[in-house]
């Protein structure tokens, strides 16, 4: 019995240390229409296509990571479009005010109405970083909606941890 309670205490302490090491982050990202976009209809049914795109985004409300703020973002992605939905996979290369960068892989589900994006929801995970951020890990979620000018506005949140 005593061994179980000591194990329970050790597990609780380990979880507390992990929870303390995580830092919450959030921000708002504005993405204009992609600079490059190519769509190929598959031909098996109407609205089924693959697409690849690349575009630039800016942070209207930057995330702060280790004392520096996110500045710009280059997103490259591919989608399987299927009528009113699309499954997306992408890579975002972010530059911070310090000049350091991080890379995040994204997955999302988009919905469309009359060919226009309505909502994009997904997850992201850090996969690499440079400079002061080297070794950083973390993950989070995002949700985007179009504004009146056709830009996508994404609310991004998550957590990160720096190596010890």
Ordered list of secondary-structure elements with their pairings:
Blueprint: H1 2-21, E1 23-31, E2 36-41, E3 48-61, E4 64-65, E5 68-82, E6 85-96, E7 101-113, E8 116-129, E9 137-146, E10 152-161
Antiparallel strand pairs: 1-3, 1-10, 2-3, 3-5, 4-5, 5-6, 6-7, 7-8, 8-9, 9-10
Overview of the structural elements:
- The longest helix has 20 residues, at 2-21.
- This protein has an 8-stranded antiparallel barrel.
- The protein is 12% helix and 64% strand.
- Strand 7 and strand 8 form a beta hairpin.
- The chain is elongated and about 50 Å long.
- It is mainly beta and 164 residues long.
The H-and-E topology, N to C, reads as HEEEEEEEEEE
Provide the gyration radius in Å: 19 Å
For the secondary structure, the number of strands is 10
User: How many domains would you count in the coordinates?
Assistant: 1
- Summed over residues and divided by their number, the pLDDT gives a mean of 90
Here the CATH topology equals AOC barrel-like
The low-confidence runs, each spanning 5 or more residues with pLDDT under 50, are: 7-20
Structural class: mainly beta
Q: What helical percentage do the residues reach?
A: 10-25%
The first-to-last residue Cα distance is 34 Å
User: What CATH architecture would you give?
Assistant: Beta Barrel
């Amino acid at each position: 019995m005593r061994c179980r309670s000591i194990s329970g205490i050790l597990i609780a302490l380990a979880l507390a240390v992990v929870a303390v090491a995580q830092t919450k982050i959030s921000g708002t990202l504005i993405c204009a229409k992609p600079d490059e976009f190519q769509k190929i209809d598959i031909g098996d049914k109407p609205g089924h296509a693959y697409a690849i795109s690349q575009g630039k985004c800016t942070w209207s409300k930057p995330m702060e990571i280790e004392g520096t703020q996110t500045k710009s973002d280059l997103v490259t992605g591919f989608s399987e479009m299927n009528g009113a939905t699309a499954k997306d996979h992408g890579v975002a290369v972010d530059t911070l005010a310090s000049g350091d960068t991080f890379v995040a892989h994204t997955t999302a589900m988009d919905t469309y109405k009359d060919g226009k994006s309505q909502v994009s929801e997904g997850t992201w995970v850090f996969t690499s970083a440079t400079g002061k951020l080297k070794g950083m890990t973390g993950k989070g979620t995002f949700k985007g909606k179009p504004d009146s000018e056709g830009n996508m506005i994404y609310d991004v949140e998550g957590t990160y941890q720096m190596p010890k």
